Amino acid sequence: MKFFLTGLTFLCFCILAKAQYTETINSNRPGASFGAYSVGTNVIQLEGGIGLGNDEHDLLKTDTDLFFIDYAVRYGLILEELELILEGRFAFADETNMRSDVTQSFSFSDFQTNTIGAKYLIYDPHKKRQKEGPNLYSYHANNSFQWEDLIPAVSVYAGANLLFGDNPFMFVDEPNISTKFAVSAQSNLDRTVLVVNIIADKVDTDFPSYSGIVTVTHALNSRYSIFGEFQTTNSDIYSDELFRAGGAYLFNKDLQLDIFGLINFKDTPQRWLAGIGLSYRFDQFHKDKYLEMEDDELDKEKETNKL
């Protein structure tokens, strides 16, 4: 399975829709990172998928098979820079315990994650470039790599984890509500996008978790893209280094299909995951603010002509 998932790195595809409001859907799937930009004002976006996985823990002598359902609802609220996000994963687990002479099996299911939060874009380098306009003296300067392209857009995120009941995926005495904070930096380099996330999760609990994610996405053409992603996570309960790869196919400007695979590099537990998903955008009520400004200018011009 590890060889299969490693091969998936080179065979899968991932969509490159990473902008404030784009002509094509702007999805965070299938990776674990999220871009700096929002979906756009009054845009509702649904992202979801299903998958299989396995955790084999050498020290605990357990072997756990997983089936999971991922979900996310994103909504652009009031401002182009502001986005509300509800996301999570519901998992079904079959665990085999081999610590004694008698093998025992358990089945359980619940929310592994369930988080609601808001993301706000605090810096967009493209706005500055739009104001400056193109270089009128150099075609090369306007159509080649510039060092300033590496300057990222930056957004901040604040949210709350919501897990209730006798949840087997929660650690002992974990509160039902805990906080999550993140910073996302995104650089658009022609057909390649670099995203870096720094995440502080459950920071108000006894076992906070800190993660860093680096995602590189490259558009092969207008339909297919590929990505690779590395994540490091550190906490007193679980620390790991994870590698994801995958991709997506764009059916039309509002519908994306994706696949992904994940492996790690240790045996406590040794882990793999693979999944498939869809993202769909409802953007009928969105109107680009720049188009609104142009409409206002046309209305003013008409009024002037009447006078």
Please tell me about this protein's structure.
The chain has four helices and twelve strands; from the N terminus they run H-E-E-E-E-H-H-E-E-E-E-E-E-E-E-H. With 307 residues, it is mostly beta strands. It has a twelve-stranded antiparallel beta barrel with strand order 1-2-3-4-5-6-7-8-9-10-11-12. A hairpin with a 4-residue loop joins strand 8 (209-219) and strand 9. The radius of gyration is 22 Å and the shape is globular. Mean pLDDT is 86; it is low at 1-19.
Q: What descriptors fit this protein?
A:
single chain, 307 residues, mainly beta, Porin, 12-stranded antiparallel β-barrel, 4 helices, 12 strands, 51% strand, globular, disordered N terminus
| Low confidence ranges | 1-19
**CATH fold naming:** Porin
Q: Strands of the largest sheet, in order across it?
A: 1-2-3-4-5-6-7-8-9-10-11-12
Q: What share of the residues does DSSP label as strand, in percent?
A: over 45%
CATH architecture label name: Beta Barrel
The helix-and-strand class reads mainly beta
Write the topology of this structure.
Blueprint: H1 2-11, E1 44-57, E2 62-76, E3 82-97, E4 104-123, H2 125-132, H3 139-142, E5 153-162, E6 177-189, E7 192-201, E8 209-219, E9 224-234, E10 240-252, E11 255-264, E12 270-282, H4 289-306
Antiparallel strand pairs: 1-2, 1-12, 2-3, 3-4, 4-5, 5-6, 6-7, 7-8, 8-9, 9-10, 10-11, 11-12
